[in-house]
Amino acid sequence: DKEVRAIFLRLFAQLFQGYRSCLQLIRIHAEPVIHFHKAAFLGQRGLIENDFLTKVLNGMAFAGFVSERGPPFRACDLFDELVAFEVERIKAEEGNPPKMIKHVRELAEQLFKNENPNPHIAFQKVPRPTEGSHLRVHILPFPRINECRVQELLQEGLARSQGPASATRGDKKCVVPAGPPVGTFTCS
User: Fold this and answer.
1) What are the Cα distances from residue 19, in Å, to 35, 154, 161, 180?
2) Strand 173-175 relative to strand 73-75: parallel, antiparallel, unpaired?
3) Most buried pick, 1, 71, 84, 124, via CB within 10 A?
4) Is the model's pTM score more than 0.70?
5) pLDDT bracket for residue 2 (50, 70, 90)
6) Is residue 181 part of a domain?
7) In total, how many domains does the chain have?
8) Residue 130 belongs to some domain of the structure
9) Mean pLDDT in the chain?
10) How far apart are the C-alpha atoms of 55 and 128, rounded to whole Å?
């Protein structure tokens, strides 16, 4: 699962490499608007006639991608690092499948670590019920719920949620690395 995701991550990093140099921040509204200059992106990469990439850039998913990833100051992730710093590595691995597979496995491991930050926590398996357990008559009835205790727990939860928000590791914001400009890429 993670290796397939890593392959798609590499694909989109190659497809959109240099996209940050074609973002324009328009500040004439109360809220800044981020615009992607598609013609410049396609022209600088020599892909004006590429129907596939043109359709991708005109899609709603890419518009969401630009609005989400366009701000210059936000939390960075693995995709940002790939687009900014790994472009040359991806290009060099195109003719060398073993290196490409090694890189995919490294990315898959990073994806796994992002989703499972605490590997020491073991998940317990729930045992299967024994044969004939559904026929037993000594099963105790479900206990009655203590309404006062439920209200106390709800109040505690509300008090915690209204308190100061704790910053998580993934929410650390930074300046997004721009990576190399679009003009340095040539695609076949």
Assistant:
1) 11, 46, 38, 9
2) antiparallel
3) 84
4) no
5) confident
6) no
7) 1
8) no
9) 80
10) 50
